[in-house]
Every structure is written in C-alpha cells, then in structure tokens.
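Problem: given the chain below (67 residues), write out its structure.
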Amino acid sequence: MPQWKLDVTGMASKEDSKKLIAKGEEVSGVRMVNANHETGEVVVTHTADGFDQATFKAAIAELGFNS
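Solution.
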C-alpha cells in the first residue's frame, strides 16, 4: 500500500500523537497512521484510491496540529 510522509507541528507529547493517530485513522482510505511527537514526522499508509491528503490535513487541523 502507498505511504505518505509529512511533517506536523503541535505534537508535544505521546498523548498528542495518539490523538492524531486516532483522528487520522478515521479519514477515508487511511489504513494506518504512525506519528512521532519528538520528530513531528507522520507516516500515513493508505489505499491507492479514495485517500485525499487535504482531507487528512483538515482532520488533524481540527485537533490543533499543523502540516
């Protein structure tokens, strides 16, 4: 499955990364999200079709994270 890497700001703790993962995995087409609060790196594993990067960014922005 394809992966998409992005840098995210606003994650200050492991709890923040857990919140981002939970919200991100609700987005259509997302299979798995890994988030490292120390580096700000997020890796999204998604389907080849049905996944929209802008929708993912909007979902995590609702929690106060910026990409």
